[in-house]
Amino acid sequence: MAIARSRPTPAGYRCAECGWRTAKWVGRCPECQGWGTVLEAEPTAGRVQAATVPVSRQARPIVEVSTDPVARRRTGESEFDRVLGGGVVPGSVILLSGEPGVGKSTLLLAVASHVAAMGAKVLYVSAEESLGQVRLRAERTGTLSPNLWLSAETDLAVVLGQIDQVEPALVIVDSVQTVSTVDATGIAGGPGQVREVAASLTRVAKERNLPILLVGHVTKDGQIAGPRVLEHLVDVVCHFEGDRGTALRFVRAVKNRFGPTDEVGCFEMTGEGIVGVSDPSGLFLSRAIGTEPGTCVTIALEGRRAIPVEVQALVVKSSSPHPRLVVNGVDAARVSMLMAVLHKHGNMKSLSDSDVYVSTVGGVRLTEPAVDLAIALALSSALTERPIRGDVAVSGEISLAGEIRPATQAARRESEAKRLGFGTLLGPDLAHIRDAILQAITT
After folding, report:
1. Which of 372, 270, 278, 386 is nearest to 331 (CA)?
2. Would you identify the CATH topology of the domain 78-278?
3. How far is the C-alpha of 388 from the C-alpha of 288, rounded, in Å?
4. Any idea where the domains of the chain sit in the sequence?
5. What's the CATH architecture for 282-440?
6. Strand ranges in 346-430 using DSSP code E only, listed in sequence order
7. What is the pLDDT of residues 231-244, one digit of tens each?
8. 95 with 101: CB under 8 angstroms?
């Protein structure tokens, strides 16, 4: 009599992004609309039997779990440490993504140099540039160190061999999309390759208590290239962003298993490399505060950091039947709404037939509603050609009825305004936009 055995079930095809399954191959996943993400899946075995749990791995009540503090290693870049929550945690995997040319490699090369200067070995794996190119950048930015080891490899097996040979205290891989392995199908940068490379490096980091920093490419819409599982595998995901037209750069943590995700690191890109800016208050202010019409200072929040930003406006009589609205650093739809509020509730009828230009100083982008009051007052000041008092900073959201709503974390904004010498923070105590115009604009 034949004995029936459990046979592996046919796997078919599976989307590497969302996990959608199908019996036939398709070029585009109908679930997540991703192209080229449907790959042949491995056969799944039959029913999984329960295993005996060792004593050391048995579940425990949460109140009995120890809460020992996590030891962190400082990177030497205080702004980067701020974003990470105080430093790099041993055994963690950190993914730093950003647009091409924003300065990801420059920042991580500076981090590698600082850690190497502390006496620890650092292995920098450059899968995109040659050793000579990395050396030239290190000479230009002053990040040469005898403890900084370089390797130009794209094969994952060779990279792991380099880790065995050098025995570093920190590994940097630039980038994860250019490293490949023979254990996965597809070309380098494909979903299968990126998933296998990231999983292997994560396993090595956990086994050896070795921190690893990964550089990640982004797509044209700003998303991290590769499968979504890449962001799930790593411990920390940071975005490096900035406008190429300005020297200012921001690092934001969108995922952090060891710290907060609302911190922002501020950097300045110079000819000698990248420099952390611990107090960016002077980067977004001009010398025209209180003297020129159309300028207003707001206290904006970048993460948990309060930063003073100057908003400038220019109102010119339009010579066209269709007036222009040009903005830089703020939302155009938000400015249009505030112009309608000023037209209705601020008795500024001439805004409707004028060309309006609104911009921020320093190239910073403001997206929070708390900057509404600064935009409205800058427009009012430009239209009436009367400057706003130099000791005034503002913060508040404006409704369609012209009412001023208090901004979030008003105490932090007020404290930063007083530290910078602004005598008054308008917004929290005002009820209507007309009151703000009367108090802020000089007569």
Report:
1. 372
2. Rossmann fold (3.40.50)
3. 10
4. 11-41, 78-278, 282-440
5. 2-Layer Sandwich (3.30)
6. 354-360, 392-394, 397-398, 404-405, 424-426
7. 999 999 999 987 77
8. no
